[in-house]
Structures are given as C-alpha cells and as structure tokens.
C-alpha cells in the first residue's frame, strides 16, 4: 500500500496534479512540478527564499505540506508577471538594482506582494517588518526597501510606471 496521495494544486491559475507522500513539502512538490522560481534555501523557515502566496498570503513553502495547499490558490514569482510584462514589484527591483545574485529575490517579491495586498501605502517600518522573514546575503536591504516603496507608489497610482 502506497503512502502517496494524489492532489491537485492550483499554481499560477492552472491546475496541476501530482502524487505526493504525506510528508512532502509544498516546496518539494512545486520544484518537482518544474516551478524552479521557488528557491530552496534553508528548508527550515528561516530565510524566506521559498515563499509563495497561498490565497494571497506569503507562506514558507518549506514549512507547508503539499497536501495542505490543495484547494488553495498558489502564486509563485512567475505567476506575478513575465519578462515582457513585469509586475510593478519585479520592475522596481530591476530598475533600482534591488537584486544582486537574485536567489532571495523571488521570496522578497512574494513577501512584498503579500504586504501590498494588505497595506497599499506602507511605511518604511511596515516594509521592514514585512520583509524581516527574508534574508539576503548580498545587499544591505536599502535598495530592496526602496524598490518596495517605489512599486507601492506605482500600484497605488502615486508613482510613475516604467
């Protein structure tokens, strides 16, 4: 008797079916399905590299079991925008040089999107708190915070879209 369970996940608006054992994390399932924009960092919820939106709220996919996500909308970085039509956060990160190696960037943008859905015009302190679960080993965070503020302005109509 197999301990695998067949589940259907709604990822970036599309249903994807897979079989997973009860202990498989959402991170493992997503990467197994080819969603490599979800990064594998610490695998213990400390770095935020694996963050995805689950019904619009940022969660660490390394701490979420795959079967727990069934019936919920999962959004990865690729679900926010494309290189041809970037989400304002993606554009601001690119324009302001908020990414160096890029490994933490998907999780940072996902955490920022979760914040901006709740708080469209966040203060610098609100941005800092919202991103406090995401670690970057390359930058000093200033450009990241600036990019989130710039994207918030564009998304609320107070800033210029590129």
Report on the structure:
There is one protein chain. This protein is α+β, with helices and mostly antiparallel strands. It has two domains: 4-79, Beta-grasp domain (Ubiquitin-like (UB roll), Roll); 88-155, Orthogonal Bundle (DNA polymerase, domain 1), CATH 1.10.150. The chain has five helices and five strands. It is globular and about 55 Å long. 40% of the residues are buried. The model has no long low-confidence stretch (mean pLDDT 95).
Largest sheet: 5 strands, mixed
- End-to-end C-alpha gap: 56 Å
Oligomer: single chain
Radius of gyration (Å) = 16 Å
The amount of helix comes to 25-40%
Question: What is the CATH architecture term of the largest domain?
Answer: Roll
Order of helices and strands: EEHEEEHHHH
Low-pLDDT stretches: none
Strand order of the largest sheet: 2-1-5-3-4
Question: What is the average per-residue confidence, as pLDDT, rounded to a whole number?
Answer: 95
CATH class of the largest domain: Alpha Beta
Might you state the CATH topology name of the largest domain?
A: Ubiquitin-like (UB roll)
Q: State the domain count.
A: 2
- Which word captures the global form? globular
Number of strands: 5
- Give the helix tally: 5
CATH superfamily of the largest domain: Beta-grasp domain
Structural class: alpha+beta
Strand content: 15-25%
């Amino acid at each position: 008797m197999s301990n695998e369970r067949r589940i259907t996940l709604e990822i970036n608006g599309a249903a994807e079916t897979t079989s997973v054992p009860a202990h498989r994390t959402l991170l493992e399932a997503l990467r197994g399905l080819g969603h490599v924009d979800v990064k594998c960092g610490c695998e213990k919820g400390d770095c935020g590299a694996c963050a995805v939106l689950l019904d619009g709220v940022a969660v660490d996919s390394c701490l979420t079991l795959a079967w727990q996500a069934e019936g919920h909308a999962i959004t990865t970085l690729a679900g926010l925008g494309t290189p041809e039509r970037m989400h304002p956060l993606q554009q601001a990160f690119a324009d302001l040089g908020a990414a160096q190696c890029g490994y933490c960037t998907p999780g940072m943008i996902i955490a920022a999107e979760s914040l901006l859905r709740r708080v469209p015009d966040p203060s610098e302190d609100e941005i800092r708190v919202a991103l406090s679960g995401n670690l970057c080993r390359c930058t000093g965070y200033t450009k990241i915070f600036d990019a989130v503020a710039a994207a918030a302005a564009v998304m609320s109509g107070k800033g210029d879209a590129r």
